[in-house]
Amino acid sequence: MAAIQRLKSWFNCKEGSATEDAQPIVQDTNNGTDSNRRKGTSRLHLLRLSAAVCGIEFCYSAETAFVSPILLKAGVPESYMSLIWCLSPTLGFFLTPILGSASDRCSSKIGRRRPFILLLSAGIMIGLILVPNGHQFGDLCDVDEMDNVSATISFDEELYLYGSNENSTFSITSFDVTVNATASPDTHVVRQVCTIAVTVLGVVLLDFCADAAQSPTRAYLIDVIPKEDHQKGLSSFTTMAGLGGFVGYLICGIPWEKTTFASVFFDQIHIAFFLVLVVFIVAVALTVTSDKELTLDEIRSKPRQITSQSGTHMELTTLDTKKTYGTQDQEPVTQRSNDYSALNGTSTEHKDEESDFQHEQGSMKDYLLSIIYMPYSLRILCLTNLFCWMSLLCYSLYFTDFVGRAVYGGEPTAPKGSEELYLYEEGVRNGSFAMAVDALSCSIFSFYLVKLVKRFGAKPVYICNQLFYTFGMIWMAVLRTKWITFLASITTGAMYSTLFTMPFIILADYHSNNMFEKSKESGVTRHHIRGIGTDVAVVQSMVFVGQFTLSLCMGSLIHYFGTVVSIVSAAILSFCGAICASQVVYLGL
User: Which among 179, 302, 523, 571 counts the fewest CB atoms within 10 Å?
Assistant: First the structure.
C-alpha cells in the first residue's frame, strides 16, 4: 500500500512541497511586500520538471555518435557535411526567438509553454524516426527493380523435332542460358537522392527542434516555481541535462547487435535510436504533466482588492485551484515583482494601473522588435553566452578527432588494417568515454552550483568556472596525454553546467526585479516590451550563432594548423567569455 500511495502522489505532483494546499499570496499595496506562505519546491519535483531536457540530451548523444556516419553512408560527400550542419543553426537563429515571442502570447487552454514543448517534441520524434531509416524510405522511391532484362540461349547441337500432329517431342542435347538484369542508372540516382533527402530532413528536424525545445522548457520551469526556487530549479535542469548526456553516451556505446534486440531491429543504430525515442517520450510526458500552467487569460485577470481586519487595503488574486490530472495545487498568482507567470513587463500593484497593464501587452510586432532593441544588460549577457557556446562547441564537435590524432597519433585516412587507423579508432573510443565523464561532472557541478552562488555570489562563479575551463583546455593542448583528456573533461563539465544555468538565473532575476520595466521612466517606447519566453529564446539562440560561425571557419583552421587548433580556440573563446562575464549586470546575485 505504501508503494501504491507513493506512485499516486507522484502522478498528482504531491512530492515534498507539492503536498501543500495552494495558499493565496497576499500583497500589501502600501509597501509592495508580500507574504508567501508556500514552502519551497522539492528537489524531486524540480527533477521531474526538468525531465524533458534529460530526454533532449539523450537525443543529442545519439546525434553526436551516429549522424555523421549515417550521412556518409547515405552518400553525402564530406565537402557538404559542413553545409548540412549549417542548416539547423540558420533556422534556429531566426525561428527560436520568434517561437519564444509566440509562447509569451500563446492563449492555449493548456498554458503558454506546453504547446510549444509538445510541438517541438513532435519534431524531435519525427527526426529520430527519419534519421536511421533514410535507406528504407529511399527504397520506396525504387519503382522499377529491373528496367532492362535480356536473355541469351545458345545450343551446342542441332535442334530436332519428332512426333505426329497429336504428340510432339523436343530433344535438346545441351544448352547455356544467360540472363542479364540491369537496373537503370536513373533508378539508383532517384533512390540515393531520396535517401539523402529524408536523412538530411531528419537531421535538421532533430537538431533544430532539440535546440529550440530547451527555451520553452526552461520558461515553463521558471513560470511554475516560486522565485526563491529559481536557482535550485535551473541547477536541477542542468543536472538532468548532464545525466541524460552521460547515460545517453553509455547507451550508444553498448554493442546492442549482440543482444536479443538484434533479432528485431536492423543494426546497432536502429536499436539505439529506438531506445532514445522511448526514453524521450517518457521524459517529455513526465515534464508536461508535472504542473498546471496559468493561461494567458488567467495572467491578465484583474486582481480584486480586499480589506483586512486592520483596515489595510490588500490585493488578492483569486484563481481556480481545482485539481486536474498531472497537476499540483497551483498557488494563486498575484501581480508581484517575482511573478513569472506575468512577465510581459507590466506591474499591477495598484488597481488604477490595470489600464496600463492591458495597454502594454503589445502586439507580435512589439515582441519581435524587442529581439532587435535589446537593453545593454541583455546584449552583454548574450555576448557572454555566445563566447561560452563557441568555446564548448570547439570541444564537443572536434574532441574525439583531437584525441585520435593529437593524443594517440592515429590517422583516419590511413589504410584499413594499418597501425595508424587502429590508433585513431582507439582514440575516438576513449574520447567518447571522456565525453561521458564530461556529462557526469556537469551533473555533479550543477547539483552544487546553487550553493556556490549563495556562498561566493553569481559573478565570481560565472567568471571562475569559465577560467577553470580555459586552464583545462590549455593543459590538454600542451600535454596531450591520455589521462589529461579525462581530467580536462571534468573542467568541461563545469563549463557546461555554467552555460546551462548561470545566464538563465541572471535573466530570471532581471524579470523578477522588473529591470526592463523600470526603464519606462526614461521614456522607453512600446517595442521595448519584453517577455521572458522571448528573452530565454534570444539567449538560447546564441548556440545557433556559435554553430554557424564555427562551421564556416573551423574546418579550414583545422586543415591548415591541425586538430589541436580546436582545443586552443576553445581556451581563447572561454577566456573572452570570462571577460564579458565581468561586465554582466548581476543585480546583487
Answer: 523
